[in-house]
Amino acid sequence: MPEEGYQRPPERSRRVFLCPLGLFFRAFNTRKGTIIARTPTGTITSVATAFATDVTITGISNAAVAVVTTSASHGLVDGDIIMLESSWSRLNMRAFRVVDASGSTLKLDGEDTSNIEIFPAGGGGGKLRKVNAWVQLDRTLNHNSSGGEARTVNVKFIESENEIVLNDGFTAINRTFDMDADQLGTAGYTALRTFTQTGKDTVIRQATPGNTFNLIVGKVSLSEEVVLTDGQVMVVRGSIAAQSRSTRYAV
To answer: For the domain 135-250, what is the CATH code?
Structure first.
């Protein structure tokens, strides 16, 4: 018997569904209809393998959505993905989605540059290049990511009894993954091998379940030493050394 005053939780307030193919594990609040959690199954990772010619940036505005001005007509359209090099360190070596593109101006979707202490007025010059082609990395597994956390420094001045903490940027982001060794000869495997040889920066895109994707600029490398583990598929191992922070978008 329930104790006096006990109230039964509302029926059907929360359910967990597993789709027939087991692709997604979702927790729903049936009153609001919102997705609370989701697994990464179905994530697609791609690397940019071709870029357009560099376009010179003459300046970037201080605005809630940064406006980029180029030295000539850039030819970009809304939805294009660009890799940016800028004198503003917070924007340097990052990738963005283009919005409101016209003539020699465009906006960096979602990027707020209104703080002049972080983004000094009249600065931001550099160059951009548009991603022209992507190659999907098929049959990957065991994805891991580390870094990206805020760095701090503990300081204690001699006249003070208390130690204080100062922010000091962010730690480097590193990603690792395995790829089915039998992918040898595919477009994705070949792209990884090429990046390993050239050491060039590129844009990595991860499209995750729920119509979101993230972009990050980094150096991609592949170890072709085949990992042989009894009872598991043979794999080779890839890594991504990021050059800055990731940018995340809803589709």
So the answer is: 2.40.30
Report the alpha-carbon distance of residue 168 to residue 154 in Å, rounded.
Answer: 10
Mind spelling out the 3-state secondary structure of 67-104? Answer: EEEECCCCCCCCCCEEEEEECCCCCCCEEEEEEEEECC
β-pairing, 67-70 vs 55-60, is: antiparallel
Q: C-alpha angle 241/243/245, rounded to 5°?
A: 105
Give tens-digit pLDDT for 155-205.
Answer: 999 999 999 999 999 999 999 999 999 999 999 999 999 999 999 999 999
Whether residue 93 contacts residue 244, with contact meaning beta carbons closer than 8 Å, is answered with yes
Phi and psi angles of residue 70, each rounded to the nearest 5 degrees, phi first = -110, 160
Q: Is the pLDDT of residue 251 over 70?
A: yes
Note the pLDDT tens digit of each residue in 120-154: 999 999 999 999 999 999 999 999 999 999 999 99
Cβ proximity of 24 and 39 under 8 Å:
yes
- 105 touches 69 (CB < 8 A): yes
Instruction: Write out the two tokens for 22.
Output: 């087991």
What span, in angstroms and rounded, lies between the C-alpha atoms of 47 and 204?
5
Average pLDDT over the chain, rounded to an integer: 90
The reply to whether 135-250 shares the fold of 51-132 is: yes
CATH of domain 51-132: 2.40.30.180
Domain ranges of the chain: 14-38, 51-132, 135-250
